[in-house]
Amino acid sequence: MASKALKVLILHFLCLLLFLRPSSSSYQTDTLVQGQGLMLGEELLSTGIFFRLGFGCFSKCYLLIWRNDKRARLENIVWVANRNTPISFDAFPSLTIDDYGNLTISYDGGRSTFVLYSGQEARLNASAVLLNSGNFVLRELNSDGSGSGSWRGVDVFAEGSFTFGLDPNHTNQLVILWRQDIYWTSGSWYNGSFNSSSSLLTDSYCDFSYISNETETSFTCVRKDSTPLYPQLAIDYLGVLSDGRTLVNCTTSDFSNPCEGCVPQELPECRSHYHTFTPYSGLWDDIDGFRFEGDNLTLMDCKSKCLNNCSCVAYASTIQDAQTGCQIWWRSPRQYFLQDFNAPRTIYVLDSEGKSI
């Protein structure tokens, strides 16, 4: 038993090193060819040395694309292939293109697979290329030597709580959607700028431009001449929009003076936006809480479920590392609490219920 525990501990340590180590690999190519495997610890590198692709592991493993810069990997990820289907750290995943041209992640010794792309017919001479744009493209080499693309990784993404992009109803403004509801709006584009929240987006490393004609409606982000950084707009699981600096953060809004553009969440009469929760780290008995099905709920989703249930006094993620899954309590778990700042779980307790802990 001790030997088995030691093996698991060593695997955990090795995967932690793989996840946190600087980006370096003997696999210095931008292309994965048919019949070849990209193993844990190996990476693809775009020809311009702008992006890398490989597996990142901590308690779970994910296929990632990240910018090739000096930031920690968690800070520069641009794409996650299997966010809703994480792979166990000891399953040793590999990325392959099989004999039929299917792009898959194999693990557990090939007994399990996660399919990224499955074509309608068998493909020969298929390859997947990491481009300087950050796109990961599956291609097939034709008999005349020309190539044709059939799949782009950027077009495949896991469902998240927050989405940043064009307002589907008013396409001359940018919005953040929480699920399907408007969470933040930039205001309409007018005379070369947004007529609301402009102070937030003008702090960005981007110079925005807007195009609207018969064939295209889009916003474009171009690097400002005054900054050496390549702009990367990112939205996290809390709905915070950033480009290396925080641009929009509605989670810290003072509701008597809300952040410009933030749209308050509709709440039942038993709640107000002044209700707050305090996080406590410790050991908790799994008492009479309710666990929601599925692991795709973020911490913000869980907080919303608690606020919309008048009996809820506390909430927490069920998967602490990923901050996903949701459990809520109708009875304060205070009497079952042992405070431990190094404990793996954090529970958020309604202040009116939890201040006496």
TrEMBL record:
Every Bulb-type lectin domain range: 29-151
- PROSITE patterns (alphabetical): BULB_LECTIN, PAN
Provide the Apple domain boundaries. 270-352
Pfam name, any one: PAN_2
What is the recorded name of this protein?
A: Apple domain-containing protein
Task: Extract the signal peptide range.
Answer: 1-25
Q: Which UniProt keywords apply?
A: Disulfide bond, Glycoprotein, Signal
Q: Which SMART domains match?
A: B_lectin (SM00108)
Q: Which PANTHER family match?
A: BULB-TYPE LECTIN DOMAIN-CONTAINING PROTEIN, OS09G0551150 PROTEIN
User: Lineage of the native species?
Assistant: Eukaryota, Viridiplantae, Streptophyta, Embryophyta, Tracheophyta
Q: Kindly give the InterPro entries that the UniProt entry links to this protein.
A: Bulb-type_lectin_dom, Bulb-type_lectin_dom_sf, Pan_app
Coiled-coil annotated residue ranges, if any: none
